[in-house]
Structure formats: structure tokens, C-alpha cells
Amino acid sequence: MGNSFFQRQAAESPRIQPSETVMKKGANKKQANPRHFRDNIEVLVFAVVMALGLKVFAVEAYQIPTGSMMPNLMGTDLLDRPGGPPTGGIHDRVLVDKLSYLLRDPERWEVVVFRYPLATINNYVKRLVGMPDEELAIQHGDVYARPLGTVEDFQILRKPKEIQQTLWKRMHPKPGDPPGGFARWDKSGQYQESDGAVRLNGKGRIQYRNWRNEYRHGLPDKIYFRVPSQGQDFDSQIKVSDLRMDFEVTPEANAGELEIFLECGPQPRTQPLKLILKPGQDQHLLLLPNQEEIQVSLPIATGEAVSGSLAFWDHTVSVTVKSQGESFQHDQDLDLQPKRVLQNASGFGSETGGWLIQAPEVFRDIHYTPPAGYTAVQTYTCEIEKGHYFMLGDNTLNSLDSRQWEALVHELDPPIGGVSVLRGDSLPNGQDPLYNNPRLNRNGTVRTFRNEYGEYFVYPLDFETEGKVRKRTVKSSSQTEPLVPRRYILGKAMAVFLPIPPFSPLVRIKLVR
Questions:
Q1: Alpha-carbon radius of gyration of the chain
Q2: What is the C-alpha end-to-end distance of the chain, expressed in Å?
Q3: How confident is the model over 421-473, as pLDDT tens digits?
Q4: Phi/psi of residue 295, each to 5°?
Q5: CATH topology for 75-163+371-400+486-511?
Q6: CA pseudo-torsion sign 459, 462, 465, 468
Q7: What CA–CA distances, in Å, run from 226 to 73, 78, 95, 174?
Q8: How many CA atoms lie within 13 A of 148 on its CB side?
């Protein structure tokens, strides 16, 4: 039955001579060419339209040009050796979701791509920190906000834990550290070092004081010394407040209590984050910076390693302890007052010893610094009106973001060509003369001004000498104009998909948080 249709078609088809068959085939072939060509064109046009549609409305790829988001997003030259000339670079290619923001507004802490409001021909990528209708403050390394137009107390802005996990920057061990794991740590009392660990034989203390905000924290070991310092000191004078320490300790025979501590946050010395382990017992103690005590239920046995993490960021604590296949977890937001960080520390201490301590890993959070010109005790504030957003780079030591943006305005009287107001990026320290704004021509007779849309305007230099130009600057802290309008936000960074070896010393494939 399966062949009856084909047999019937064959029976109904007229018989033709072989010569006629050749002629018919040739004729059919000639007749098919135009349609075949047209079909290919239609497919090609459809593919181009779909690609353009995806780029405009759904997904587009961007390259990271600078280090403002390092190490989360890499954009840097690489030196052939420390202090040598550049021999390449790492510039992440990021896939950007443009569809989501057509359906909803951006949310705080998302990494977004947007048009630079003072030169809209350029696209920037930063982390969205300040939302519309709020007043934002940067103080002592953290960011705060309150409703716009109120006198309420500023509330700290806390990064969600899943985002924070991607933002920790490793400080210790540092690439190039000598073997031992505790090279620059202070050690006192009865201890013995061996195989990168420290054994407390009696009363002893191991600690590192004054972790600082260094430019290259968190960079991969493989390129750490190949990344230019961008003019930043390797050892900044800024002490960081938010720390995390991952540890592994093992109680030995006759082990006593062990303190694992972080002196961090607003009151580091008087109210540290402290975990007290008690060998041979199932109940231990966690002391929070607000002086609250938490009971930790966990078995600890001689010779069995205890691992975990103490973390403090944005006035939030997160503690994890694991032992003998069981674990303890405590996360809590604290109500603390802002205070300048004068010192910090991380370490271990015991009154009786009996502990083997492996070299820990120590990380820091993003330490948000105020703009140039502010002292350590000053608070930077910015009012964000409806329809505008405040952007910050993850690498605040080298990020041109909402803290520094400054609009340059030239008012011409009389107007030239019907234009009376020119507005663009001031770029007071621009390194590229093509983007210095404004700039003189070679003969020094006219000024060229590049406005926010990338258009160039020229006016005679005697306009300035005759008082026909009124110049002023507008900072983010005084008006909303240099902030990012909603219409300039293009999309959300989703993933890094390039580079990869052999075009890069690193594999850069990851989700962006």
C-alpha cells in the first residue's frame, strides 16, 4: 500500500522519448535559475534583517576598553614585564541583553551598558548604584541613600549575597609571596612554622593589620604583575572596612579555645567579628560587631579539620563553619552607624595553643571612594531626580563614573549659526587631544567645541577675549544633567564570551553579576 501512490503517478504520466527527456530537463533547469537566485536573496535578506533586529532589540556584543570594572570585567593593556612596554591586552567581549529593559526598568546593582551622557557617541559599562528619586551618599567606603527631599537618616545600600560573592577581591596570598603563607603577618607567643602552616604550641596570636585598598587586588595571578598600575600606588593609604577570611584549622591533642577574628567595619577593635571554637564540645560561640552572641552547634574532634569563612560587607555578616560533614551558617544584617575606618585586622589567637592553622585567603569588598578633592572624613552626596541613575565602577581607583562627570557649558552671546548654548564633556585631564574639550586649532585662532552628541562647533578666539562666551561647569552633585537618563541605558551585561587562548593568557568565559 505504501507504493500504490507512486505506481499510480507513473501509470498516469505520458511516455516521452529519451531525446525529449534531455530537452525537457535542460529547459526546466534554465527556468529554475531565476527562482533559485531569488530564493537565495530572500534568505540572505531575511538573515540580515533578523541579525539587525537582534542587535537593535535583543542582544549585542560589546568590548570592554578600560579597567573601570576590573577584575569583574577586564579591559587593560599587558606589559611584557613589570615596568616594560605593553605587548598586548585583555579586553572582555560582553554579551548584552537589550530586551529586558524594554520590558522593565533597570535594577540596583545590575551591570549596565549605556550612552555616556556627555558624549553620547560613546558607550560605557558600569554598575548601577543610585536609583531615581533618592539622595545618594558615599562615606567611609560604603554607599548610602535616602528618599529625595527628606531629612531622614541615610540607610546603607547592601549588595545581595549572590552578587557580593562575585565582587570579593583577593588580597592574600598575593602573587609572588614567598612560601609560608604568613610572610607579612604579625606573630607573637609560642608558635612554629612548617609547610606553609603555623602551629600554636601555647599562648599565641597571628594577625595581619591594616589591609589597604590596592589597585590590583583580585587580578588573576597569571597577569597580576603585567597590569599597569594606572598611576595608582600599589599600597594605598586607604584602609578598607569590609573583609572576608576563608580558613582551615585543625585541633591537636590538648587543644584549647581558638579565636578566629575580623576587626572590620565601624568599630573594629572594640567589636570585632569573632568565632570561638571549643574542642571536645558541640557548642561554640559567634560574637557579632553589634555585641550579639550566637550559639554555634557543631562537633569538633581532635585531628579533624575545621573550615569556614568569616565575612563582613555593607554592615552584613555571613559566617560559615564546617566540621565532620556538618555545617553551620549564619547571615545577618546589622544596624550600625557610619564611622571612619582607622584600622582593621584578621587573624587567630589562643591562650593554650594546640592548633594547626593553614594559611588563610583574605578578600576585600569594593571600597567606594569619594571624588578627587574630598578628604577622608568628608561625605559625597548626589541628588538623583526622577528618570536618572547613578553609576559606579567596581574598580573605584580607576573609574570615570558619576562621581567625576562634569559637564562643560559655553553660552555664546551673540549666537553663532543659531546656536547659543554648547554643552559637552569638560575632560579637564584628557590625554587624547581629539577629545579635549574645548581645544584650539593649530594656529590658535579658533576654538573647537565637541557637544554631547559628538557634533563639532567652532567659534573665534576673540569671542573669549571680548567676553562673548560665558563658561561654567555642572557637576553630578549639583544637577541631574551629568547623570544617566533612562533613555540612554541600552541593556544589561549578561556574560563574557571572549577572549580565550591563544588570543589571551586567560580564559574569559563567565556570567556577569
A1: 32
A2: 61
A3: 999 988 755 445 556 788 888 788 888 888 999 898 988 888 888 888 998 88
A4: -80, 135
A5: Umud Fragment, subunit A (2.10.109)
A6: negative
A7: 16, 5, 26, 14
A8: 14
